[in-house]
Structures are given as C-alpha cells and as structure tokens.
Automatic annotation (TrEMBL):
An MF annotation (GO) of this entry: acyltransferase activity
Pfam name, any one: E3_binding
Superkingdom per UniProt: Bacteria
EC number: 2.3.1.-
Cellular compartments per GO CC: pyruvate dehydrogenase complex
Similarity remark: Belongs to the 2-oxoacid dehydrogenase family.
Extent of the signal sequence: none
Organism: Crystallibacter crystallopoietes
Cofactor requirement: (R)-lipoate
Lineage, broadest ranks: Bacteria, Bacillati, Actinomycetota, Actinomycetes, Micrococcales
One BP annotation, GO: pyruvate decarboxylation to acetyl-CoA
Residues covered by the Lipoyl-binding domain: 1-76
Region (Disordered): 79-131, 168-216
Transmembrane segments: none
Protein name as annotated: Dihydrolipoamide acetyltransferase component of pyruvate dehydrogenase complex
C-alpha cells in the first residue's frame, strides 16, 4: 500500500508538524498534488504526492508532530485497501523522504478519524483542559478575534480546524474581547477601535497562575536554539569598524532616482549585500565554512540576510550576489524577505549561504554582535546610521557613520584575515562606485 512519508524539507529539519490537510480521505489525487501543509523549522511548506490514486487514509491528525520518514497518509486504488498492493511496496514519497526512508508500519500510525463527521455537541475536545486546535486555526482565530473555545470542531477527534474558524468568522460567531487565544497563535491581538492595544501573549502559552507562563517551543524556535547552541561552541572573535556613509546614502538616492520608473527601490541592506559580495570575491578565505575536518572555501558567493519573523528568525539567501545587477538583487532581496515573513520560502531559498548579514539599524541599534550562522565562517552585524562630530582640516564638522561588527570563527579565520576583509568592506562602502565594479 503506497504511503506518503514526512519529508526532509530543510537541512536542519528533524520533524515536522502537519498543520493542515488540504485533501480528505476518499479524494482522488494526482502526481504533484499538494495534500497538506507542514510546519518545519524554517517555514510552512507543501506536502506533495508523486503518485496517482485515491487518498485512502490520513494517518495523523492536524497539529501532530511527525518525525522525518514516518508515514502520514496512504494512497491506494480507492478500495480502501490501497489498491491491493502489498504493504511496504510503496514508492510514493514526498520530495526528499527517500533520504530517510521509514520502515513500513503496520499499526504504529494512529488510526485517523475516518471522514470526520462534524460533531454538533457543544462539548469541546480537550487535552488537559486545553481546547484542541490546529496551529493554523489558532492563528486565523487570533486574526479574527475569535475564541476557539466557543467553536465546535469538525477535524479529527473533534479538533478545531481552519474551516471551523473561517466559517465562524464568516458568520460573525465566536468573537470575543478576550485576545489571549489569538495571542496563543503568535499573532498580534486585534484591538477593537475603542479598545487600547494590549500586548500579545506568546504562542500556546499556559497560564498556571504563577509568576510565569509556559510557552511551547515551535519547530523554528527549536531549530534556532539548536543551531545557535552549536555556534556558541565555536571559538570566535569580534572586529568593529566605523564606516562613513554619507556618500553611500547619496549613492543610494541617485540609484533610486534612476530606477524610479521601474519601481525598484534599493535599500541600505541591498547595498550592504552587494558590497559584502564583491568584497568576499576578493577575500575567498572569508567566504568559507567549517566542515569539521576541513574548511570549505566556496567558489560562489551566496549572501544570507537575517529576517525576523513572527515565531523566530530565518535567513533567506541571495545566490551569486556578486554577479547580479543591483536592481535585480534589490528585487530578489525584497521578494525573499516577503516570502520569509509569509512562511513561503522554498527549501533552496534559505539554505546554502556562505556569509550572513544581520541588520538591526532600522530598530535604532547603534552596534551589536551577531551569532555566527553555522557552518559559515563569519557574520556581519550592522547598526544604525547616526551623526557624529569629527574634525577635518582643523574645523569641526559632522558626518553620518555606521558601525559594522564582524563575528568570525577562529577555526577558519585569523584576526588579520578578517581585519583585511573588514577594511576593504569599509572602503567599498565609503567609495560606493566600487559596489558596481
């Protein structure tokens, strides 16, 4: 009987959460159809099938965490027995499930609720007093100011799913001034027009009445914690340089005037991406990664840009950033950032970076140190552009400056090597025409 397995959708993914089923049992599916969505440590991604047939069974309910390689659904011929095929003969896999094939499971998978008939009883499915709700449903409920506890679930086991919330929203049901549940989904509370904004609570928090609340870890937060803990084990050092950016900002203004008709708008981050890329081209030692028993010196330059999103941090990657025209680079950076915030990045869009930039200047942070994104050799932390006085030709003047702090892995880079890169990066930013050369 063909099985669909939980695929590996990122290099760091170890498990995924079935956030939503898009097909139901009995539906006919074809190769390439998306039957569900998976919350990974990076984004919400599609679960595709690669075989035609009938979706015989959904083996796990929405909201379930599943290890890579475990079966999540069964496809058959529509007879309910998988088309007469012997168990374990499946070749149906999601994108990379073949990397970690799971042994056929006879009964390990929990029996899913068959074609869930909507329970009409007011009793709510609970687990330890908590209303069972899929993460997506909670998020949508928060957006509409709906308390899921007021809804009747139609999902497996009576779980409240997206359709329940959307139906309630369309009917104007379940709205409440209480925003705690919305905050559970990690969404900002939506205050009423006459209500003062109140801070959103953390996702799925449990208020025990004590001085603190329990906040379950999302897949992304788990991955962030794991990777940055790995990074902390690397011997690293910091270098800071002060860059005069008056000419850079003037250059940016001139570029944007030139691109005005095309709608392209180049940001300071775009210029930093390009400047780092061309400087890395001249410093291949910095464009390297630590590989345990060797150093990988990359021939191509892929710049990651850290993007803060609702439930964590993700680093979309601009590939071959040293070879792209500035307008193309700016458009791609913006598109990647938007996809990151929407949780729609594809696997190849957030992996394979060779150097990372983290810019907190828009928050008014003067300077900071960033944690290396392993296995990369270095990361650049960018502070805000600020005015400072300085003396030139015996007169007191002012200029705009920006502080750059580079964190370097000492296993890959020595101080002089890193310092030479940062010196040349400063020169590139202070003479911005070099960005285009």
């Amino acid at each position: 009987m063909p099985e669909v397995f939980m695929p590996r959708l990122s290099d760091t993914m170890e498990e995924g959460v079935i956030s939503r089923w898009l097909k139901k049992e009995g539906d006919t599916v074809h190769q390439g159809d998306v039957i569900g969505e998976i919350d990974t440590d990076k984004a919400t991604m599609d679960l595709e099938v690669f075989e035609d047939g009938v979706l015989e069974k959904l083996l796990v309910p929405e909201g379930t965490t599943v290890a890579i390689g475990e079966a999540v659904a069964i496809i058959g011929g529509g007879s309910g027995t998988g088309g007469g095929e012997a168990p374990g003969t499946s070749t149906t896999q999601s994108t990379t499930a073949a990397e970690a094939p799971a042994a056929p499971r006879e009964s390990a998978a929990p029996a899913p609720s068959a074609a869930p008939a909507a329970p009409k009883e007011p009793a709510k499915p609970t687990s330890g007093g908590r209303v069972l709700t899929s993460p997506l449903a909670r998020r949508i409920a928060a957006e509409h100011g709906i308390d899921p506890a007021t809804l009747t679930g139609t999902g497996p086991g009576g779980r409240i799913v997206r359709a329940d919330v959307e139906a309630a929203a369309a009917a104007g049901e379940g709205r409440t001034e209480k925003t705690d549940q919305g905050a559970q989904a990690g969404q900002p509370a939506q205050p009423s027009p006459t209500e003062a904004p109140r801070p959103a609570a953390a996702p799925n928090q449990t208020d025990t009445g004590a001085d603190s609340v329990d906040v379950p870890l999302t897949q992304m937060r788990k991955a962030t914690a794991r990777r940055l803990t790995e990074s902390a084990g690397a011997p690293h050092f910091f270098l800071t340089n002060v860059v005069g950016v008056d000419r850079l900002f003037a250059f940016r203004q001139e570029v944007n005037q030139r691109y005005a008709d095309s709608g392209i708008k180049v940001s300071v981050t775009d210029l930093l991406v390009r400047a780092c890329a061309v400087t890395l081209h001249a410093h291949p030692q910095v464009n390297s990664s630590w590989a345990g028993d060797k150093i990988l010196q990359h021939r191509r330059t892929h710049i990651g840009v850290a993007v803060a999103i609702e439930n964590g941090l993700i680093v979309p990657v601009v590939r071959d950033a040293d070879a792209k025209p500035l307008d193309e680079l700016a458009a791609e950076t913006r598109e990647l950032a938007e996809k990151a915030r929407a949780g729609k990045l594809k696997r190849d869009e957030f992996r394979g970076g060779t150097f990372t930039i983290s810019n907190l200047g828009m928050f008014g942070i003067d300077n900071f140190t960033a944690v290396i994104n392993p296995p990369e050799a270095a990361i650049l932390a960018v502070g805000a552009a600020t005015e400072e006085p300085f003396v030139q030709d015996g007169t007191l003047q002012s200029r705009r400056i920006m502080k750059l702090t580079m964190t370097a892995d000492h296993r890959v880079l020595d101080g002089a090597t890193a310092a030479a890169f940062l010196r040349d990066l400063k020169q590139t930013l202070e003479e911005p025409l070099r960005i285009l050369l």
